[in-house]
Design goal:
By secondary structure, the chain is of the alpha/beta class. The chain contains 8 helices and 20 strands. α7 links the parallel β11 and β12. This is Oxidoreductase.
Length: 368
Amino acid sequence: MNAAVRPAAARPRSRLRRLVSPFVSPQVFDFWASRFHPTWSWERPLARIVGRSEASADAATLLLAPNRHWRGAVAGQHLLIGARIDGVLVTRSYSLSAAPRADGRIEITVKAIEGGKLSGYLHQRARIGEVLELGAAFGEMVLPQRDDGARLFLAAGSGVTPLMAMVRAQAERAMPQPLTLLYWARRREELCFVEELRALAAAHANFQVRFLLTRQEPQAADEDAGRIDADLLARHARDLRERAVFACGPGGFVESARALADGAARSFASEAFTPPPRETREDGHAQVVLARSGRTFELPRGESLLTALEAQGLKLPSGCRMGLCNTCACGKSSGATRHLHTGELHAEPASALRLCVSAPAGDLVLDL
């Protein structure tokens, strides 16, 4: 693991907590502590919304003040955000859109997604003063600790957020290496951080930004039109072989970027926030036994175990729903599963799997 993404060491328990823990449960402590301060907690990472601004026509940036239990992150990583909506805790994964600040505050930029329960809530209804739950930071698409040469960032839609955090981190160091950001959106009004990116490009000779529109014609000198392809990369990144490429966006965009840059660039790293298209879908059903609860279900082979079990009424821990955060990981006692993104078959007994990206390839026994 890159040293930059090692989890922070657990904080030693205070003497006071050791003394009172036999007499007060964390739940009781949290109940009474929250009456004095909304983010006081025995051990839960929480954050209060302390700022809000519009990032684009359909995205908002929230500034969060975490409590002492949150262990931090580096630019490029994600974290789980949880909010109570109509009395139910809803949790999803969001990228930091800026590196953590000296005062400990963090930013996330949330794009409203049609049908997205939490994204719609955070974009439209969440207000300053509200308290959100935080998960530990995760994600391997981060910059190396040592400068390693020129870089090319490829972003589409919400995929700009982790890359923007890395752009800002590099700007704090006066852009020590050449960096180009190519940022796709359907329309101009859907672009985030435009004025800031233009100001950074004007201030740093080592930084270039190009805005790529797929449903509008370019107007400004730093705009172009068209979807990602070899000709477009040749226009804006002629020195591709000398660059480390980082790509983030929908699954199809990331796969296109991989096909164009992986092997043609100095290195390639990516993350997708939607699954890549699946080549094949399996028909039929499999018997899935939940060993701890003693329940048995017939579940479809072509659907993720998480989605299929939720359809049966189970409430299971989940976060990114992309196989990144491990919130939905559980043990498998026997049987085979197929990874929904890669098609790879996993038949090892007594192993772990992530429910959100695993489909049954036969009868299974899960440690649930």
